[in-house]
Amino acid sequence: MEQIGRKTENWSSRFAFMMAAVGSSVGLGNFWRFPYTAGENGGGAFILIYVLCAALIALPLLMAEYAMGRKSGMSAIEGVQSLARAESKTQYWGIVGWVGALTAFFILTFYMVISAWLLAYVIQAVGGNLHGHDAAASGQNFRDIIGAGEHPLQSKWYILGLAAVFIAANVIVVGRGVKGGLEKAATILMPAFFIMLLVVLGFSLMNGDVARTVDFILKPDFSKVGFGTFLSALGQAFFSIGVGVGLMITYGAYLDRGTDIPRSSAIIAGSDTLVAIIAGFTIFPIVFAAGLPEASGPSLFFISMPVAFEAIPYGSVFAVVFFALALFAAFTSSISLMEVGVSWFEERQGVTRLGASIGIGFVLWMIGAGYVFGGDYLDFMDFMTEGLLLPLGGLLCAVFAGWILSRDMLVSELGEGMVMNVWRFLIRWFVPPFIAFVLVFGFLDKVQDQYHVQLPAVLESLLGPNWTAPPAE
To answer: Out of 73, 324, 344, 450, which residue is the most buried by the measure of CB atoms under 10 Å away?
Structure first.
């Protein structure tokens, strides 16, 4: 019989928790995904939708996950099941934790590879060998550039080796536990991260095209907005802040009773959103100053930025700081995502933290090898996690917190009063229908755009030959 019990470790201080929580939120979502997603979806229009999704959808979910974690004192999977039992509901509600934990794992599979790319760029930049490739001018895409010429990502075995190094660092930190691993890494790396962020921001504002950046970020282009934009903004908010993957339930299990969950959640969500916007102001001024396109997908970060740094004074120096900054952010997030699975394994009898970390790390490396040698798999998993699994995990969590858990159970974690009333209304009546609506129509829109599926033909096959498509506008 497996023994399940409450966590025996807690965050040593509120500062340690805040650094770990902000570190778990601030990651590749802010630096790699956010800028190019904004560039492809109307700049300021996307950012406006993203901020609304973060405030009205992701923040209530963040509060819910912390409350569920602290109330149960267990991993995401076991915690949800224990809360369901306490409410005399079926344990099948454990699907909330399972979807979140599996999503965290799937994200980690490609997160580790992208982090290996970052490590390769840092090494190249330190050696003064980082040279850009103007993908827009040459007509080549991201994959074409990697596959030809002198490029940091060209050697697949080299990248696989760097992935092993990055995964090993994750295994060491997570295997050391909460106090000796997670919070110690966060309390060292996050202050350094914010110092580096301000340095790069100042450099970008002094050497880049600030006027065009302000116009791009603050002037919405609603002509590029569709259902897919809302799904991208929602997925970006989930991916960046870290909800919908069981991560914050896991971190909540280590919270002490003195931590104010609503206030802490607002600070964490606000900090993450602020960093994402600052990332835009660090990247786009340099991109615009170099005359490069803003809507260039992943190439914006890995192809355009080296080109941009070559075009400005002292760019080679700041390229080191910039890619090291992104690598720091990636590491603080990856150790948090790994903790979701390790926390669950730790609750099983006879499984140590270090053993669970090594096992998960080895599986991640094996799957990462498939991504390294077949890049299309990485693109597909990125698409599926952002477009389907993250919103689905958030939807299930909102339904569970809003309709399955009683108000009395959550009052003990979130307090009574106006904050509780507003949160209760949002988590029950606004968050689930909004996510469901955006998930269905946004996913169909993104499938059509990503894979060129003709939806009228699909609907005709489902609804019969008498169905006709509406006239084109």
So the answer is: 344
Question: pLDDT of 122-166, one tens digit each?
Answer: 998 888 777 655 444 433 454 554 444 445 666 888 989 999 999
Give the residue ranges of DSSP H helices in 290-430: 299, 305-310, 315-346, 353-373, 375-384, 390-399, 407-414, 418-425
- Tell me the HSE value of 174 on the side-chain side, using a 13 A CA sphere: 34
Task: Determine contact, residues 394/241, Cβ cutoff 8 Å.
Answer: no
Query: pLDDT at position 459, please?
Result: 44
Q: Tokens 């994200």 appear where? A: 107
What mean pLDDT comes out for the span 237-259?
A: 89
CB 386 within 8 A of CB 235: yes
Using the Cα atoms of residue 392, residue 71, residue 355 and residue 25 in order, give the sign of their dihedral.
positive
Write down the residue that tokens 């084109």 correspond to. 472
**What pLDDT digit, counting tens, does each position of 97-112 carry?**
999 999 999 999 988 9
Q: Which two tokens stand for residue 119?
A: 């490590």
**Distance, C-alpha 374 to centroid of its chain:** 22
Beta-bridge partner residues of 43 = 220
Residues 6+ apart with CB under 8 A from 204: 281, 282, 283, 285, 286
Q: Is there a contact between 270 and 241 (Cβ–Cβ < 8 Å)?
A: no
CA 40, 134, 382, 251 torsion-angle sign: negative
pLDDT of residue 250: 92
DSSP 115-136: HHHHHHHHHHHHTT------HH
DSSP 94: G
The residue whose two tokens read 């602020």 is 274
> What letter represents residue 375's amino acid?
G
pTM score = 0.86
Residue 454 has pLDDT above 60, yes or no: no
Give how far Cα 156 sits from Cα of 105, 107, 114, 146, 373, Å.
Answer: 22, 20, 13, 10, 7
CA 14 to chain CA centroid, Å, is 23
Instruction: Write out the H or E segment, with its range, that includes residue 15.
Output: helix 14-25
Distances 318 to 27, 269, 274 between C-alpha atoms, Å: 19, 28, 21
Q: How far apart are CA 312 and CA 389, in angstroms?
A: 40
CA–CA distance, 276 with 272 (Å, rounded to integer) = 6
Provide the 10 A C-beta neighbour count for residue 113.
27
Q: How far apart, in Å, do the first and last CA atoms of the chain sit?
A: 62
What pLDDT does 284 receive?
85
Angle between helices 59-72 and 407-414 (to 10 degrees): 100
DSSP 8-state code for residue 43: B
Tens digits of per-residue pLDDT, 419-441?
Answer: 999 999 999 999 999 999 888 87
